[in-house]
Amino acid sequence: MARRVTQDQYFKKAKEDGYLARSAYKLKQLNDRFDLVPQGGRVLDLGCAPGSWMQVEAELVGLRGTLVGVDLKPVELKLKCEFHTIAGDINKLDPEHLKELAGGQFDTVLSDIAPNTTGHGDDLRSAHLCRAVLNIAEHTLRPGGRLGMKIFDGAEFQDVLKETRVLFQQAKSYKPDATRDVSRETYIVARNFRGARVNP
Ligand SMILES: C[S@@+](CC[C@H](N)C(=O)[O-])C[C@H]1O[C@@H](n2cnc3c(N)ncnc32)[C@H](O)[C@@H]1O
């Protein structure tokens, strides 16, 4: 049986592999399983700081891909593909500006956004952020596009999953091995975006 990699081992491995955070392995595992990031694709990364997912995305899209990352915190990165970062709140984004930066609609929207955890109502804040992610995805993704977003399991989880299924032909939840065992965080992974609704 394959030996499980512990969280400390992911931390050490990220240092050795040159990733800014061990969360890099969560995206690698999500992508290995669900093929979220196409070569040469355009990827929008919401909640991208410090940038380890963008490092992985750059490897996956290759030299011809384009990335746009957004976070409240400024991000400093060196990547081989074209990329843009925006320091700001995802609740205040202009979808047209994001598409302009990328040169067109995105193939994939990813979100590893987490609210500040207080131990009370974290799941509700996470669900609220996921709804903002779904709204951005609806106005920036190409039909057929893909989504991967973090959500804290809790009272609103099933509703957010249902709302994702309105926009995508397939959506399910998945917890990569690199996620802490005790954490309530999981990911919603969705494929085949149906296209923006005319009168949502
Ligand atoms: C777990 S970290 C992301 C790690 C990143 N995927 C990586 O691998 O480097 C979550 C990020 O979400 C950001 N965030 C939380 N709320 C946000 C919001 N409203 N708008 C933009 N970013 C937000 C935080 O600043 C934080 O950097």
Concise account of the structure shown:
The chain is 35% helix and 26% strand. The chain is of the alpha/beta class. α5 packs parallel to α6.
Count the E strands. Answer: 7
| Number of distinct helices | 6
Tell me about the largest β-sheet.
7 strands, mixed
**Structural class, from secondary structure content?**
alpha/beta
β-sheet strand percentage: 25-35%
The share of residues in helices is: 25-40%
Q: Could you say which overall geometry the principal axes of the C-alpha atoms support? A: globular
What is the mean predicted local confidence, pLDDT?
A: 94
* End-to-end gap: 48 Å
For the record, what is the CATH homologous superfamily label?
Vaccinia Virus protein VP39
Order of helices and strands: HHEHEEHEHEHEE
User: What's the gyration radius in Å?
Assistant: 16 Å
CATH level-two architecture: 3-Layer(aba) Sandwich
Under CATH, the topology can be stated as: Rossmann fold
Domain count: the total is 1
Bound molecules: S-adenosylmethionine
What is the CATH top level name?
Answer: Alpha Beta
Note poorly predicted spans.
none
The order of strands across the largest sheet is 3-2-1-4-5-7-6
How are the elements arranged and paired?
Elements: H1 7-17, H2 24-34, E1 42-46, H3 52-61, E2 66-71, E3 82-87, H4 95-102, E4 106-111, H5 122-140, E5 141-152, H6 157-167, E6 168-174, E7 185-193
Parallel strand pairs: 1-2, 1-4, 2-3, 4-5
Antiparallel strand pairs: 5-7, 6-7
Bound molecules: S-adenosylmethionine.
Residues 20-21, 23-24, 47-53, 70-73, 89-91, 112-114 line the site of S-adenosylmethionine.
